[in-house]
Write a structure and sequence with these properties.
By secondary structure, this protein is α/β, with parallel strands linked by helices. The protein has two domains: 264 residues, Glycogen Phosphorylase B (Rossmann fold); 191 residues, Rossmann fold (3-Layer(aba) Sandwich), CATH 3.40.50. 38% of the residues lie in helices and 18% in strands. The strands form three sheets. It has a nine-stranded mixed sheet with strand order 3-4-5-2-1-6-7-10-11, with helices on both faces. Strands 14-13-12-15-16-17 form a six-stranded parallel sheet, with helices on both faces. Strand 12, helix 11 and strand 13 form a beta-alpha-beta unit. The chain is elongated. The chain starts with a strand and ends in a 9-residue tail after the last helix. 48% of the residues are buried.
């Protein structure tokens, strides 16, 4: 059987450039798919950090000029092969020669309009790769299915190419003015309608991806259900319901080699199912020393690695954090984001200097130390398309406390005191006291661990849960095969 050729398009890909879960997915999924009847290549912008780090390893392929309204912009194409995957990079110093991946919102719209046009311009002969499927990720690539129909299919180019569009977070949609998008993308008027890329009178790149792609996926089955409702749909629930026939929820996985307590060099003692208690005790002692909290072993440690934004349930936590700490626990919180939440956490730490250590920065090595050291891991998200932290925590034998939403609901089975089953704890509603009561119950179980075997059973269940990428790869393969089995006739103007 011939392999399905897939070009994966994303604004960020690990390890080259990362701000969140999108980069984690695009870092691992291509390599796994290459072991499942696919030949996957990846294309992304050539940001300054990539050029500085990999300049000597990048292979120059060609340069051309891409028309952007009245402008003609330079577009360089480079390639780099590593880990069995070929990566392509679109170069333009004006758009991507910056220290940050994302800049001012309006400029980001222009930058990624250029990126999408440059990607399509590089298809086929320039990159010596004509894909069967272009797999687009999030709003930064949402126009690609539409641009194919507007500028290529009617003239006989790439007519066999299908598109799959993955929504990682529906909240961020890529919205801009009609005149601007029409100019930057040379967008024909027939696409600038409410049946096309417009939502409430303005272009919406997320909507464009949903409407014009042949298949839409989200990063967990529960999130695929939730976004069909007004509460989670971010204004696009009606559009998604109209196209629900092409919507599939596929649970993300984690890199089991990167997050592995048996080999992780960031923790003081590697461990597995046979010696997890000893390994986690060593990690806990080392972490508490690093963040200047007492380490007498009498209190459970709750960890949190998160962006400090309202989506992550910080308001719920702040309402009950004083009572929670007084109940008997220590907390280490790592992350950056909204200055309000950072200031509030620092004020709580001043009131409870021996119980809370807020680390208002991001350090991937420290994150791994927290995953290994904590007894419990907190994720009270208002919504969570997938979430990776809860799966990573379980890999390290740390029991998650989550709200039952999106991928958190799909990956965490709550503790059942009657049969001892489960791999974590959960609560249903956006309610601070539900969070408090659930966390108190988890703390109580920790305190009983010497006499109640349930705690050890939960940890063993968590550590043996399968959150690898093979299952997800098989589901994506099914989507690809379904898309390629559906031929769509494109009229020639």
């Amino acid at each position: 059987m011939s392999k399905i050729k897939v070009l994966m398009v994303a604004s960020e890909v690990g390890p080259f450039a990362k701000t969140g879960g999108l980069a984690d997915v695009t870092a691992v999924l291509p390599g796994v798919l290459n072991q499942h009847q696919c030949e996957v290549r990846v294309i992304m912008p050539l940001y300054r950090r990539i050029k500085q780090r990999y300049e000597d390893q990048l292979k120059f392929i060609r340069w051309t000029m891409v028309k952007m309204g009245w402008r003609s912009m330079y577009s360089g194409l480079f390639s780099f092969r590593t880990g069995g995957v070929t990566y392509y990079f679109i170069d333009n110093e004006y758009y991507f020669g910056h220290d940050k991946i994302y800049l001012e919102y309006s400029f980001d719209i222009e930058r990624f309009c250029f990126f999408q046009r440059a990607v399509l311009d590089a298809l086929g002969e320039p990159m010596d790769f004509e894909p069967d499927i272009i797999h687009c990720h999030d709003w930064q690539t949402g126009l690609i299915p539409c641009l194919l129909e507007a500028h290529y299919f009617p003239y006989g180019y790439h007519r066999h190419v299908k598109t799959v569009y993955t929504i990682h977070n529906l909240k961020y949609q890529g919205i801009h003015g009609v005149e601007r998008i029409a100019d930057l993308c040379d967008m024909p008027a027939r696409f600038l309608t409410e049946y096309g890329i417009l939502k409430d009178g303005v272009p919406n790149l997320m909507k464009a991806g949903i409407v014009y792609s042949q298949a839409v996926t989200t990063v967990s089955p529960s999130y695929a259900e939730e976004i069909l409702t007004p509460y989670y749909g971010e204004g696009l629930d009606g559009v998604l319901r109209s196209f629900s026939y092409k919507l599939t929820g596929i649970m993300n996985g984690i890199d089991r080699d990167l997050y592995n307590p048996q080999t992780d060099r960031n923790i003081p003692l590697n461990y597995d199912l046979t010696n997890w208690a000893k390994g986690k005790a060593a990690a806990k002692k080392a972490l508490l020393k690093r963040v200047n909290l007492p380490s007498d072993g009498k209190l459970p440690l709750i960890g949190m690695v998160s962006r400090l934004v309202d989506q992550k349930g910080l308001d719920l936590l702040l309402r009950i954090i004083d009572e929670l700490l007084a109940y008997g626990c220590q907390m280490v919180i790592l992350g950056t984001g909204d200055e309000f939440y950072a200031n509030q956490l620092q004020m709580v730490a001043q009131r409870h200097p021996e119980l809370l250590a807020p680390c208002i920065y991001f350090d991937s090595q420290l994150a791994n130390k927290i995953y290994a050291a904590a007894d419990l891991f907190l994720m009270p998200s208002l919504f969570e398309p997938c979430g990776l932290s809860q799966m990573i925590a379980m890999r390290y034998g740390t029991l998650p406390i989550v709200r039952e939403t999106g991928g958190l609901r799909d990956s965490v089975t709550p503790y059942n005191k009657y049969d001892g089953s489960g791999n974590g704890f959960s609560f249903a509603n956006i309610n601070a006291h539900e969070l408090l009561y659930t966390t108190k119950a988890a703390i109580d179980l920790w305190k009983e661990r010497s006499t109640n075997p349930a705690w050890n059973t939960l940890i063993e269940n968590a550590m043996t849960a399968d959150f690898g990428w093979d299952n997800a790869a098989e589901e994506y393969l099914k989507v690809y095969k379904k898309v390629l089995g559906t031929q769509k006739e494109i009229p020639v103007d």
